[in-house]
Amino acid sequence: MIEPSPTAPIDRRLARGVLMGMEPATATKPAHVVFTVPNTDYEMHLVPTAEVRTRPGKRLVGTIRARARRIDVVLTGGRYVEPVWGRPRRVQGSVVAVEPDAVVVDAGMPIHCVPTDPRQKPADFAPGQFVSFNVMDGATFTEA
């Protein structure tokens, strides 16, 4: 059972988690939110696109967006984001939706990946395909 249990259906393209905190910018890292996913060890460091109104320790729903170096269709493996703690660097999962500018991948949480390889476009992929890709710096979070 997912904790906290969802009480209302939400768009499956939105990530649901808990805001653990907001970290200020340093000389080597931009300011970021620490987003955790219930029932996992994931602690994602994501750059907010706007001010996050949620208080730390409270439920947070929004969109995770990442730029993919190249999206590859794979046949084996599981759904994951590497590393478990920090900014996402590698993602693998199934395509749940195709948008005009991004492919939405379920990797334990929905991630909107924007292909940066000029030979690829979101329309090249279909829901149900299993894909894997490396993530460029600067994965973002937009609160719903």
Number of domains: 1
SSE string: EEEEEEEEEEE
| Arithmetic mean of pLDDT | 91
Number of helices: 0
Percent helix range? under 10%
Radius of gyration: 15 Å
Termini separation: 24 Å
Walk me through this protein's architecture.
The protein has 144 residues and is an all-beta fold. The chain has one domain (15-143). It has strands spanning 15-23, 32-36, 43-48, 59-73, 80-82, 85-86, 90-98, 103-106, 110-115, 130-135, 140-143. Strands 1, 2, 3, 4, 5, 6, 7, 8, 9, 10 and 11 form an eleven-stranded mixed beta sheet that branches. Strand 8 (103-106) and strand 9 form a beta hairpin. It is globular, with a radius of gyration of 15 Å. The two termini are 24 Å apart.
Task: Give the key terms.
about 140 residues; mainly beta; eleven-stranded mixed β-sheet; 11 strands; about 0% helix; globular
Offer a quick outline of the entry:
With 144 residues, the chain is mainly β. It has no helices and 11 strands. The protein has one domain.
Chart the SSEs and their pairings:
Layout: E1 15-23, E2 32-36, E3 43-48, E4 59-73, E5 80-82, E6 85-86, E7 90-98, E8 103-106, E9 110-115, E10 130-135, E11 140-143
Parallel strand pairs: 3-6, 3-11, 4-9
Antiparallel strand pairs: 1-2, 1-4, 2-3, 4-10, 4-11, 5-7, 7-8, 7-10, 8-9
